[in-house]
Specification:
- The protein has 262 residues and is of the alpha/beta class.
- It has one domain: Purple Acid Phosphatase, chain A, domain 2 (4-Layer Sandwich), CATH 3.60.21.
- It is built from five helices and eleven strands; from the N terminus they run E-H-E-H-E-H-E-E-H-E-H-E-E-E-E-E.
- A six-stranded mixed β-sheet has the order 4-5-6-7-9-8, with helices on one face. A five-stranded mixed β-sheet has the order 3-2-1-10-11, with no helix packed on it.
- Strand 2 (43-46), helix 2 and strand 3 form a beta-alpha-beta unit.
- The longest helix is centred in the first third of the chain and has 15 residues, at 23-37.
- The protein is globular, with a radius of gyration of 17 Å.
- The protein starts with a strand and ends in a 10-residue tail after the last strand.
- Bound molecules: fe (ii) ion (2 copies).
- One fe (ii) ion (FE2) binds at residues 9, 11, 49, 78, 191, 193, 210.
């Protein structure tokens, strides 16, 4: 059995808050929870938006805090990240692409692929032909090995009218590729700051809450001009993956009030 922790969207800043939430307190609470209760996990995957603004100072401070994890961590890029600073400051696994933060991690229970869906300068994502070629080759080589894919941007609509304007722009081609391969067992997606599960082209998927701030439910209606985070607590995902078995538990690691002014 592979046990892993899944964390998303820390939006770290070295000082100040983000939309009334303190990223340092929230991230530390997540790390404390993992160290206390899930130190037997093989690693912690962090599905993008590592920082909120992408400055060197933020990444340096983030690295220092993440080094407090007793399990290794696998960092991923989101729309808020800077690939150059990311690569200089965070530990990117070696089996991956040179120009993208896209890599694979082999485990006895399957292959983990962490994809780069960033489109620089945009909050929406993309998946260019270079990344698609790498992915096709990884899926070809996997043959019968189960493959678990982590990515920041959703490649499909999620019935979230506001977030759906910022998903992966060529998701149809991406999903068409995945649907050709029976080895693809599950997608794990960040970016939307809200938990949703379902299937797409027959492939199960889950999205995850942010460790920092949560997006409100679609109703009552809201838009980006009036956006305010929902007063909902954050989650971590605890994953247990075995032979033809995927179990994801959404775990609350602190109260909403922790790191906010209530
Ligand atoms: Fe985010
Ligand atoms: Fe994002």
């Amino acid at each position: 059995m592979l046990k892993a922790v899944w964390m998303s969207d820390p939006h770290f800043v070295n000082d100040g808050d983000v939309l009334g939430h303190d990223p340092r307190l929230r991230l530390q609470a997540a790390i404390d929870h993992i160290n206390q209760h899930h130190s037997d996990a093989k690693f912690c995957i962090i599905s993008g938006d590592m920082v909120n603004r992408g400055t060197r100072t933020d990444y340096d401070a983030l690295r220092k805090i993440l080094d407090g994890l007793v399990v290794p961590f696998l960092p991923m890029v989101g729309n808020h990240d800077d690939r150059q600073i990311f690569r200089k400051t965070l530990p990117v696994p070696e089996f991956g692409m040179a120009d993208f933060i896209q890599y694979s991690v082999e485990t006895p229970n399957g292959l983990i692929l962490c994809l780069d869906t960033q489109k620089p300068g945009s909050d929406a994502g993309t998946f260019c032909s270079t990344r698609l070629t790498w992915l096709r080759s990884a899926l070809e080589n996997a043959r019968d090995t189960p493959v678990y894919i982590f990515m920041h941007h959703p490649p499909m609509l999620l019935c979230l009218p506001m977030q759906d304007t910022e998903n992966m722009e060529n998701g149809e081609a991406f999903l068409g590729l995945l649907a050709e391969y029976d080895c693809v067992k599950h997608l794990f997606i960040g970016h939307v700051h809200r938990p949703i599960t379902g299937t797409v082209k027959g492939i199960p998927f889950a999205t995850m809450r942010s460790v920092l701030y949560q997006a409100p439910a679609p109703l009552p209606e809201w838009d980006w001009d009036s956006f305010a985070p929902a007063k909902e607590p954050p989650n971590l995902g605890i994953l247990n993956i075995g032979n033809a078995f995927v179990n994801l538990q959404f775990v609350q690691f602190c109260k909403y009030e922790h790191g906010t002014n209530g």
